[in-house]
Specification:
This protein is mainly beta. The protein has one domain: Jelly Rolls (Sandwich), CATH 2.60.120. The protein contains one helix and eight strands, in the order αββββββββ. The strands form two sheets. It has a four-stranded antiparallel β-sheet with strand order 1-8-3-6, with no helix packed on it. It is globular, with a radius of gyration of 16 Å. The protein starts with 6 loop residues before the first helix and ends with a strand.
Length: 107
């Protein structure tokens, strides 16, 4: 008899999904994507930062002044149960370029 999946395993709470990747190429903020181009709002995000540290901002321009989230290279960030509609942007924290890989889920 084949193994059956439970209803909780089949439940998909988010209707939309969008992946992204960006490698910085300068010392100014770069917009990765605008959430409203792909969905009404994002409710979950997961990111991984590679190569060098990056500052990440959800719903605005990334800055190095402490108002953006620092994500060190080789680490990641996941948040569920949030709501944002604007830009996801990054700026490098050091003089080397970094890469961010991630996904958003929403409705």
């Amino acid at each position: 008899m084949p193994a059956l999946r439970s209803s909780i395993e089949l439940l998909q709470p988010y209707e939309k999904f969008k992946t992204f990747t960006l490698t910085t190429s300068g010392s100014t903020a770069s917009t990765i994507l605008t959430v409203s181009d792909y969905m009404i709002e994002a409710n979950k995000i997961t990111i991984i930062v590679d190569r060098d540290d990056l500052y990440v901002n959800l719903d605005g321009d990334a800055t190095t002044d402490g108002t953006s989230m620092l994500v060190p290279a080789g680490t990641g960030y996941t948040e569920d149960g949030i709501s944002f509609r604007g830009d996801i942007s990054v700026i490098r924290a050091n003089s080397s370029n970094g890469r961010i890989i991630g996904a958003i889920w929403g409705r």
